[in-house]
């Protein structure tokens, strides 16, 4: 069983609207991201996560997002293994997102 905390899309939307300090990482592929992303999200395709996470601080909170929540859970588990203690997975991914989209 995963040790990754999950967060609902509604909670993420509320945190964005309250300007909470968080970094959202969208791990979907380019063609998926072209259909819209969560506002403020950074796009790092899942396969690039191992090469790009060194650019990020281990002190910050990260929320991982994908289409359904499965790939983002894998990315969150990877980041946790690499010493990122504050990672969460957005439950249901973009399929459950009802908030604003940015393109």
TrEMBL record:
Keywords: Transferase. SUPFAM superfamilies: Rhodanese/Cell cycle control phosphatase (SSF52821). The keyword Transferase applies. InterPro entries: GlpE_sulfurtransferase, Rhodanese-like_dom, Rhodanese-like_dom_sf. GO terms for molecular function: transferase activity. This is Rhodanese-related sulfurtransferase. Residues 18-102 form the Rhodanese domain. Gene3D superfamilies: Rhodanese-like domain. Pfam families: Rhodanese. It comes from Halobacillus alkaliphilus. The keyword Transmembrane helix does not apply. It comes from the Bacteria.
